[in-house]
Amino acid sequence: MIYLEKNNLDELVKEGLYLVDFYAEWCGPCKMLTPVLENLEDKINVIKVDIDKFEKLAFEYRIMSVPTLIFFKDGEKKEELIGFRDEDELLEVINSLK
Questions:
Q1: Model pTM?
Q2: Per-residue pLDDT for the chain (98 aa), expressed as one digit of tens each?
Q3: Which residue among 35, 38, 60, 83 has its CA within the 20 to 30 Å range from the CA of 29?
Q4: Rounded CA gap, 8 and 85, in Å?
């Protein structure tokens, strides 16, 4: 799992399959989602973006609620989910993108 440290998200997601988790430290559902995402790390690259640290990026991606999960394939946004999702729901999306 990669925690975004600098504003280079576009560079990170340009090749391969990525799940980007826009989250906040104060968000309960975001905390519940972290172990689910850890279980998926062998199936998809996971990047966590703290919306409080990267406000411009959150604005750019029009993040209105957290958690917001955006799936990228080779730099292109493919799917967006808002709110807590269980592992089966996320696996369904991952498998549809492979």
A1: 0.94
A2: 888 888 889 999 999 999 999 999 999 999 999 999 999 999 999 999 999 999 999 999 999 999 999 999 999 999 999 999 999 999 999 999 98
A3: 60
A4: 26
